[in-house]
Design goal:
six-stranded parallel sheet; three-stranded antiparallel sheet; binds 1,4-dihydronicotinamide adenine dinucleotide; alpha/beta; Rossmann fold; L-2-Hydroxyisocaproate Dehydrogenase, Chain A, domain 2; 11 helices
């Protein structure tokens, strides 16, 4: 069966010289473990004209440091809520890794009490200062923080679900790395769809669709173990860092890759294929299975990005028995996390 993502990647790109090819990107939480290496990677992007580095601490130092890199993007640091508006004004893409990370023994949901308020405040800033921007949320729990941002933007009358994303690229990156290792393939040539949400069992790698395929003789137990490793890979890093935080370097790599996809799509170099945790209004539901669209208003899906954001939700493709079982088993948790976010936003500050 034709792989829709590969099919789209093969479509020739169409460049329009009249349209902008470089954009202002605002990074909120820029001085943190993810924010610092991500600042560096964004400064290296040929699609970034201006890089606004915002945080509540330490941005002058990060901005001074990154600004000395001999690449074209103009860098400015913004410190504290008084400067949030200036950081956001004119931004085409806002990336949000602001908030606390996990420590050993914590789930992503344990971060909710602190990060929910941070994301709400920053989404209010987006609504006020750059309501047309694409917004990519990294702050955990992504399953809840994206619905929070959506509610805030909706309340302000500026929600465009085609431009709001939870960044789940790290799950895809991990699946590519692990399947590459297992099959002896360069991970850049590996393709593994990862859908669902971004926490534990809600992370649903579709290993049956992996390219190259998993070894034919691989046992069901080994496949299950691989699925479990992808789902728990974040915890592997949290434990190895032993209290010093969660994934930062691999996350910065993943976020830079996702940002690159967004900026290429904005520049008209689309269509660009990606995975992202998005809201599924009927308008976006063409490719998603009816069950997904009906039961789960937010779901990480394969999408086609164009100038307008998500232009098409691509089909999930066939799920094997193990994947279908996992899908059924995770729905309640994902829905609960979505509702928690929606209710938090409804309560207001
Ligand atoms: P960190 O603690 O090193 O950095 C967070 C930064 O956010 C700090 O510099 C802090 O000053 C800043 N911050 C706090 N409140 C802020 C506000 N109101 N406005 C702007 N900045 C603010 O944490 P790290 O390791 O960078 O992780 C950040 C978030 O990303 C965490 O929530 C973590 O769970 C999440 N994460 C998400 C992943 C994903 O796949 N989506 C993967 C790894 C982490």
């Amino acid at each position: 069966m034709a792989d829709p993502l590969n099919r789209i990647q093969k479509i020739a790109s169409h460049l329009d010289p009249a349209k902008p090819r470089k954009f202002k990107v605002a990074l909120l939480g820029a001085a943190g473990g993810i924010g610092q290496p991500l600042s560096m990677l964004l400064k290296m992007s040929p699609y970034v004209s201006d890089l606004a580095l915002y945080d509540v601490a330490n941005t002058p130092g990060v901005a001074a440091d990154v600004s000395h890199m001999s690449t074209a993007a103009r860098v400015r640091g913004y410190l504290g809520p008084d400067q949030l508006g200036a950081a956001l004004a004119g931004a085409a893409l806002v990336i949000i890794p602001a908030g606390v990370p996990r420590k050993p023994g914590m789930t992503r949901d344990d971060l909710f009490n602190i990060n929910a308020g941070i994301v709400r405040g920053l989404a209010e800033g987006v609504a006020r200062h750059c309501p047309g921007a694409w917004v990519a949320i990294i702050s955990n729990p992504v399953n809840s923080t994206v619905p929070i941002a959506a509610e805030v933007l909706q309340k302000a009358g500026v929600l465009n679900p085609a431009k709001l994303f939870g960044v789940t690229t790290l799950d895809v990156v991990r699946a590519e790395a692990f399947v590459g290792e297992l099959t002896g393939t360069d991970p850049r040539d590996v393709h593994v769809p990862v859908v669902g949400g971004h926490a534990g069992v809600t992370i649903l790698p579709l290993l049956s669709q992996a390219r190259p395929p998993l070894p034919a003789g691989m046992s069901a137990e080994a496949r299950k173990a691989l699925m479990g490793r992808i789902q728990d890979a974040g915890t592997e890093v949290v434990q190895a860092k032993a209290g010093a935080g969660s994934a930062t370097l691999s996350m910065a790599y993943a976020a830079a890759r996702f940002a690159d996809s967004c900026l290429r799509a904005m520049a008209g170099e689309g269509p660009v294929a990606e995975y992202a945790y998005i809201r599924h209004p009927p308008r976006l539901g063409s490719g998603a299975s009816a069950a997904v669209a009906a039961d789960l208003p937010y779901f990480s899906s394969p999408v086609r990005l164009g100038r307008l954001g998500v232009e098409e939700v691509l089909p999930l493709g066939p799920l094997d028995a193990m994947e279908a079982e996992n899908f059924a088993a995770m729905k309640a948790e994902l829905l609960g996390s979505i509702q928690k976010g929606v209710e938090f936003a409804a309560k207001g500050p």
